[in-house]
Design brief:
alpha/beta, four-stranded mixed sheet, two-stranded antiparallel ribbon
């Protein structure tokens, strides 16, 4: 569901791999007046993603925010998927937690695929890992299929404009945290034309819906 900043009537729709960790922490700081830090309650560990969820578009009560500013950050699918690979597969080793079956191993799935292998078998990796699936869901999963629903759509290069928009309503705001800086440049530079076409085909709906805003 969207994060609702009631004091300014701004609804922020978080999308994984679209600076959502930094922005969730930013909006938490705006609302609470202090920086977020992980904490425990009765033995349960709470992170920012437990408190502010990235959920399907339908999970928000849209009628309740009809007159609000509705904002989101979008990212082109190649950069977004490269970031997913660099951060979740390489840095965080998300696939190390997967117990691959003998058939999956024989088919070439493994905990440390190259970016080309990851792209080739993306649907298979999405099927075995909830982390990969969540962070590679199409933009439309989180933002719906009508870009006109949003009053403001920002690209990754316009995030400071989003911060300025909030500051114009709230006054002083905290600095934007930079929590999830994954090196996606290397994987992108190594892409072949065929691999680029594969990503564009897999995310054709996102490109059709949001491509004009990227």
């Amino acid at each position: 569901m969207a994060f609702l900043l009631g004091s300014s009537k701004i609804a922020y729709f978080p999308v994984p791999k679209c600076a959502c960790t930094s922005l969730k922490q930013f909006f938490f700081g705006v609302e609470n007046g202090f920086a977020f830090r992980r904490f425990k309650v009765q033995g349960r560990d709470w992170g920012i993603h437990n408190l502010i969820l990235s959920t399907p578009f339908e999970g928000t009560d849209h009628a309740a925010i009809e007159t609000w500013a509705r904002v989101a950050v979008i990212r082109d699918p190649i950069s977004r998927l490269a970031s997913c690979y660099a951060n979740k597969v390489v840095s965080r080793r998300a696939l190390a937690a997967v117990r691959f079956t003998p058939a999956q191993l024989e088919a070439g799935l493994n905990a440390s695929p190259s970016f080309a292998e990851f792209l080739r078998d993306l649907e298979a990796y999405r099927a075995v890992s909830t982390v990969i699936r969540q962070h590679s869901q199409p933009l439309s999963h989180f933002l719906g299929t009508d870009p006109g629903y949003f009053t403001h759509l920002f690209t990754m290069g316009q995030i400071l404009e989003l911060v300025a928009m909030v500051a114009a309503q709230e006054g002083a705001v905290p600095e934007l945290p930079h929590r999830m800086q994954s090196d996606s440049a290397g994987p992108i530079e190594a892409l072949s034309p065929a691999e680029r076409r594969r990503i564009e085909s897999a995310y054709a709906e996102d490109l059709e819906i949001f491509g004009g805003f990227m």
